[in-house]
Design a protein that fits this description.
- The chain has 3 helices and 6 strands, in the order βββαβαβαβ.
- The chain has helices at residues 49-59, 79-92, 121-127; strands at 2-10, 18-23, 45-46, 66-70, 97-102, 130-133.
- The protein has a 6-stranded mixed β-sheet, with helices on one face.
- β1 (2-10) and β2 (18-23) form a beta hairpin.
- α2 (79-92) runs parallel beside α3 (121-127).
- The chain starts with a strand and ends in a 16-residue tail after the last strand.
Length: 149
């Protein structure tokens, strides 16, 4: 798996101050996407054990309320690494929230037989407190909506 960015002290992608990870590779290519560089599966950096350790370190301060996962985390090639990461975050910080943004649909794509369902999908979902699902649709953009466009 590759990732494009780690952001500490994020106030835009969850409630309170969170720490965020942007995964790399997104097939949706939504018109008006604010983060088009994440579309390329070959962009960014490889996710390593050191990357995971850095994320856990950034989550440690008590003022960090949670973790947010963005890009397209449910791409099948991202799921094995992210299932392990999310389980480690849940074990280490059971009181911190975990948010996830995905262009795939929970009730269509993330179910057995769904487009991106893998043996890791349920493991990821079991760790996530808030899932914001579905593609960004520019003609429906509404800045008054919280945590989604």
């Amino acid at each position: 798996m590759r990732f494009s960015k780690i952001k500490d002290n994020d106030i835009a992608n969850g409630i309170g101050i969170t720490m965020s990870l942007w995964t790399q590779g997104c097939p949706h290519h939504c018109k008006g996407c604010f983060n088009a560089p994440t579309w390329d599966f070959n962009y960014g950096k490889p996710f390593t054990r050191e990357t995971q350790d850095k994320i856990l370190e950034l989550l440690a301060p008590s003022y960090i309320e949670g973790f947010s996962l963005l890009g397209e985390p449910f791409e099948p090639e991202n799921q094995p690494v992210l299932a392990e990461l999310l389980e480690e975050i849940r074990r280490t910080f059971p009181d911190k929230s975990i948010w996830c943004y995905s262009g795939y649909l929970f009730d269509k794509d993330m179910v057995p037989g769904g487009k991106i369902y893998t043996p890791f999908t349920d493991r990821m979902l079991s760790c996530i407190d808030v899932l914001v699902d579905g593609e960004f649709i520019q003609k429906l953009k509404n800045l008054s909506l919280q945590f989604r466009g």
